[in-house]
Amino acid sequence: MNDHSKRLIDRVFHALGRYEDGTVVEDELLRDIEGICSAIEEEGVQNLVSKLALKIDESRHLYDVEEGKTFLSLEIGKFKKAMQIEGNR
């Protein structure tokens, strides 16, 4: 992964941390992630971030708020694991 993508992924993790701390809600997180995603040059990394954005959007539309938060928490965990694998390539 190139330095530019690494810096952008750091921004993704920062945005996720702000969500997990309760500083931002799903709508704000989605805007942050979508903005970062479009700037990532590496296709594989961009695809992972794009999939995360889709999951964030899906979580906003679940009927039960707690179910949405649980769903998103699981998806964030999957994203973090995938990024570890991508970073080790």
In short:
With 89 residues, this protein is an all-alpha fold. It has helices at residues 3-20, 26-37, 43-60, 65-87. The longest helix has 23 residues, at 65-87.
Explain this structure.
- It is a single chain.
- This protein is 80% helix and 0% strand.
- Helix 1 (3-20) packs antiparallel against helix 2 (26-37), helix 2 runs antiparallel to helix 3 and helix 3 runs antiparallel to helix 4 (65-87).
- The chain has four helices and no strands.
- It has 89 residues and is mostly helical.
- It has one domain.
- The model has no long low-confidence stretch (mean pLDDT 91).
- The chain is globular and about 40 Å long.
- The termini are close together.
Radius of gyration: 13 Å
User: Could you tell me how far the N terminus lies from the C terminus, measured between alpha carbons in angstroms?
Assistant: 8 Å
- Tell me the series of helices and strands, N- to C-terminal: HHHH
The total count of helices amounts to 4
Mean pLDDT over all positions: 91
Q: What is the 3D form?
A: globular
How many structural domains does the protein architecture include?
1
Look at the helices and sheets and give the structural class: mainly alpha
Say how many strands there are.
Answer: 0
User: Strand fraction band?
Assistant: under 5%
Throw out a few tags for this protein:
mainly alpha; globular; 80% helix; 4 helices
What's the arrangement of secondary structure elements?
Elements: H1 3-20, H2 26-37, H3 43-60, H4 65-87
Helix pairs in contact: 1-2, 2-3, 3-4
